[in-house]
Structures are given as C-alpha cells and as structure tokens.
Amino acid sequence: MVFDAYAARVERLRGILEDRGLDGFFVMVNEGLNWESAYYLSGYRGSSAAFLITKDEGILITDGRYMTQARSQCPFHVEDQGSRSLVEALADFVHATGMKRVGFEASRVFHATYLELSQRFRASLVDASDVMPTMRRFKDRAEANLIAEASRIAASAFLETLSLAGPGMTEKEFAAILEHKLILGGAEGGWGSHSFIVASGPRSAMPHGVATERAFGVGEWFTVDFGARYGGYVCDVTRNVAVGSIDPWAMDVYEVLIAAQDEAVKALASGERRAFEVDRRARSVVEEAGFGSLFTHGLGHGLGLEVHEAPRVSKTSPDELKDGDVITVEPGIYLEGRGGLRVEDDYLIGPEGPECLSAPLPKEFFVIR
C-alpha cells in the first residue's frame, strides 16, 4: 500500500471529525488487538501503539521494540513513548495540542484502559466507535485486489490439500495442512483471529463447527469454511467435500444452495441495494425447497481487514449496500443429526454489478477417495 493512500484516509477522517465538532481522534492497539484500524490509517502493523490524528498531523506513538518497524511502515510522525505508559504518552500529546474534544473507539479499548484514559486526559473523550467501521467499509480497487489475491492463494491451497486428503484424515489434520499450504503459497496465514471451520458427518450441521480429531468417514461429507490473509486483507470461502461418493440428500441440498446464491447475485446485479431484500431473495429459494427452517443465519457479512465487518446481510439488516462494499453470500442448510452444507463466495459491489473475488475456487461439490 503506497503512503499516499494512508494520507488520503487521514484527510477523509479529518472531514468526519470536523463535521462532528471533534478536535482529534485516536486508535489504540493493545497486545495486537485493533491492529486493523491502526494499519488502515497509518500502515503500522505492530502489536502496541496509539495513532493520534490532529487537525494538522498524525502521530504514531509506540515503544522501543517497534521504532524501526514503525518508521519503515508509517509515513507520519513516530514518537517513542519512553518510560511512560502508552496512555500517559498519548495524554501528553493531546494536552500539548490543546485539544478539547477527542474521539476514540470505546468499543475497542479495555475497561482498564478507559479508566486510565479518563484519569489522564484533560480533554473530553467522545465515543466515535462508528467512525472506523464506516470508513473501512468502502474498499478501493487496491483493497479489492488484495482480497482477490488472497482468494487465489486460498483456492490453490485448498485444491492442494484436497489432493492429500482421504478417508481417515481428521478434521484437525485437514485444517493444519490447509493453513500450511496457504503460507507456502504466499499468504500471511489464515484468519488469525478465527479458526477454520472443518466439520464432518453429523458435525457439519454446526455452522461454526471448528476442527476436531474426528476422522472423515466414507459416505460422509465435510464442510470447510476458510480463508487466506494477504497484504492484511482476508477472503472467506466455504466449500463442501464428499468422501467416496456424494450422498443424494446432500446433493439435493447443495443444488438448492447454489440456486439460492445465484438468486442473491441476480438481485445484486439488478441493482438491489437493500441488504434485507438480497437476503430475502436467497432465503425464498431455500423456503420453496422446503428447507426454510434449516437456514439459521444471515446470508452474509462484510469483510476486509477482518473476517466480519460492515455491512450485515440478513433478514433484519437495516444496511443499504453501497459501491465499494465487499460482502459474503453464504446460504446454508443444517439438519441436526444428519449434517449441513454451506456455499460461500465473496463479492465486490460496484456500479456495473457484483464482481466475484473468490472466483478462482471452482464452485462444485468436491469428492475425495
């Protein structure tokens, strides 16, 4: 990512601050938590920092472990917190600028950190937790290309892992080999904050069934929900794999899911922007096939630097889809005691219609023997 992109984002943020009557804004990274927002604005990817945006400059504050890294990644002014706590150093800079009202992400700081901020800050702290999700929701072409490259790497790694899989392999073994292949293929790794979902047999009825020691059995199928991270950005894809042969019931369900996903994509292509309506269009296909009560989650969600971002695509979502949104479209059907399936792909919303960023991975019911 070129430095100009970070400068443009900070300028966009300043416009938001002005509209809200704020003198500044900061994001904090604590033991790696919330690195995404700091990276989005400054380019810095260390595990401890505060990035302060004033009306005139950006200041990244971190400790001695990260100074060389910060200066190489961040185009803004970098300061060593020295012997001070991160909050103390941040408070000193806020006081020196004379700011009166400072926005921050209340939803992204620990309670103990908030108490220290309240104690040390002379300026008023104003919760602006919605600012970064709103900004990060829009993906430019460079960001979309990173997600597409993550998808290409993920597709290759998945197909390589399938070539090594067979009856008797455990869910954990499959997940471990898959992540190893992702890294060898050029990804930073998997999602990091979330484990891959590898759920076989009756366990596939759990939409979030993380991998266990259960072995793949002949005549069963397993569902794999996974992704790669590349350049900070992630993809999120789900495919289904039969062991030996495809169960006729599972094939029927799979065909319904493909039709439901296609209906959602048609809605997006037609210019439909109401998230709940896109969900309804896909859900109606599942309901007409008699599986309506077995589709137990929303149709999709935004993704980017995190696996789950704005907007939300569900039957209760108030969100309007916008150009620059990257969303998943992932209908699923789950029958307790028997199993479930899900088909998931990533789409960039644009003025010319949806673009499938996960297209490199064939959309088929795979079979291993």
From TrEMBL:
<dbReference type="InterPro" id="IPR000587">
    <property type="entry name" value="Creatinase_N"/>
</dbReference>
<keyword id="KW-0031">Aminopeptidase</keyword>
<comment type="similarity">
    <text>Belongs to the peptidase M24B family.</text>
</comment>
<dbReference type="Pfam" id="PF00557">
    <property type="entry name" value="Peptidase_M24"/>
</dbReference>
<keyword id="KW-0645">Protease</keyword>
<feature type="domain" description="Creatinase N-terminal">
    <location>
        <begin position="9"/>
        <end position="136"/>
    </location>
</feature>
<dbReference type="InterPro" id="IPR000994">
    <property type="entry name" value="Pept_M24"/>
</dbReference>
<feature type="domain" description="Peptidase M24">
    <location>
        <begin position="146"/>
        <end position="349"/>
    </location>
</feature>
<dbReference type="InterPro" id="IPR001131">
    <property type="entry name" value="Peptidase_M24B_aminopep-P_CS"/>
</dbReference>
<keyword id="KW-0378">Hydrolase</keyword>
<dbReference type="Pfam" id="PF01321">
    <property type="entry name" value="Creatinase_N"/>
</dbReference>
<dbReference type="InterPro" id="IPR029149">
    <property type="entry name" value="Creatin/AminoP/Spt16_N"/>
</dbReference>
<protein>
    <submittedName>
        <fullName>Xaa-Pro aminopeptidase</fullName>
    </submittedName>
</protein>
<keyword id="KW-0479">Metal-binding</keyword>
<dbReference type="InterPro" id="IPR050659">
    <property type="entry name" value="Peptidase_M24B"/>
</dbReference>
<dbReference type="InterPro" id="IPR036005">
    <property type="entry name" value="Creatinase/aminopeptidase-like"/>
</dbReference>
<dbReference type="GO" id="GO:0046872">
    <property type="term" value="F:metal ion binding"/>
</dbReference>
<dbReference type="GO" id="GO:0004177">
    <property type="term" value="F:aminopeptidase activity"/>
</dbReference>
